[in-house]
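so my prof wants the structure for this chain in the tokens format not the other one, which i didnt know existed until like an hour ago. anyway here's the sequence
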Amino acid sequence: MRKEPSVTGRELPLVGGAPRERADAAENRRKILSAARRITASGGVESLSMDEVAQAAGVGVGTVYRRFGDRAGLAYALIDERERRLQDAFLHGPPPLGPGAPASERIIAFMEALVDRTEEQADLLLFAEASAPEARYTGGSYAAYHLHLTTLLRHLRPDTDIHYLADALLAPLAAPLYLHQRRTLGMDVERVKAGLDELVRTLGQPESEERFQPEPPPPI
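here's what i got, hopefully its the right format
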């Protein structure tokens, strides 16, 4: 069984990595996250206060700090719930996002799903990614995305630096750039997806590409 992330819970575990909790701890976690979700839905990320969350959840503020560390840790916990659904879809769901489709189709489907996921929690992601200089890259979610893409790219373009290409494909989905495109430049979601689709297509599709089912990523 994978261990629970240390310090403040900022390292997002891979799908299936949720630790067992005592019933009371699990109930407190549920109440805290439910309260945090309501607060951010009504007032935005800026309104996410540890004191207010504790009051809304009916628990002591010390419980919130011990469980999540700080506001960034709480934000990552909210992100984690949505993250697990995405990871389950690309690891075990139907094609083309899940196994069973050609690599190029799976990459396109993954990038489009990642756009939807970023759109849904863009402000939370921006807040969480700003909590530390490399916060975006040190969590389990980025490692899972990167491994997923390198697995597909190794099949699609084995002659290239697949690790660099995986970073290059993920770079446009960093929250600051994504929000700049959406809110400052006025790009809609479909335009962002179309641009990423074109980026994937420029990688080319070898004639030898076959349908395959990669192994699930190992624990990070």
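also thought this was worth mentioning. The first helix runs from residue 23 to 43.
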